[in-house]
Write a structure and sequence with these properties.
homodimer, 119 residues, mainly beta, Ubiquitin-like (UB roll), four-stranded mixed beta sheet, two-stranded antiparallel ribbon, magnesium (chains A, B), hydrolase (chains A, B)
Chain lengths: 119, 119
């Protein structure tokens, strides 16, 4: 079946969550949102392109920071309402300069920081 | 800092997305939604407990199917608006009986099925 970004299920704001996973390590790096056009752009350019809800604009990951996400494989889930992008990540994925945004764990009722910002 | 489920950022419906990742293989299994109470229940019981948007009810993963998700580690992202649950998954995570919900890839404009239902 040929893929059409319009055949995904978007929320009321026209967005779908996209999980970015490091293709080599398997680490989950971040989750952000895409609209149909950013899905299309991601596939066309090979550069993972989200939709920034705060800026209401396309967000080519790494465009300003240099921390680019190159698309290796794009997957969709059974309900067609969530995407998984396997990526090659340059440097940190997180705006805090950490490799992954998921650097805080909940252990014994406490928040524990699992990783430090990269040099 | 002590963790309080009410200090996460929920959407207008009071929900936060939670990504489930296989703790051993690193495979991303599924994404579903939680409210503050299902986050608390997940931590209390060690059984990953989502909020079913369709049924508007708690959804203890595997309660009816037996395909339980045992919580290994719960993480939150930098914006506190997405969760990552590292889990031990019994059997398939997907209702289609596949190990992961992300069994469809987009390659050269076509949807490609990557895995078959488990026996």
């Amino acid at each position: 079946m040929s893929f059409d970004p319009n055949n995904l299920k978007y929320d009321a704001a026209g967005l779908i969550p996209c999980i970015a996973q490091d293709e080599a390590s398997g680490e989950v790096l971040m989750m952000a949102w895409m609209n149909a056009q950013s899905v299309a752009r991601t596939l066309e350019t090979g550069k993972v392109t989200y939709w920034s809800r705060s800026r209401q604009a396309f967000w080519v990951k790494g465009e300003s920071s240099g921390h680019v996400q190159s698309l290796v494989d794009l997957r969709l889930d059974c309900d067609r309402d969530c995407l998984l992008a396997l990526v090659h990540q340059v440097g940190p994925a997180c705006h805090t300069n950490r490799r992954s945004c998921f650097y805080t764990a909940v252990r014994d009722g406490e928040e524990v920081e699992l990783m430090k910002p990269m040099d």
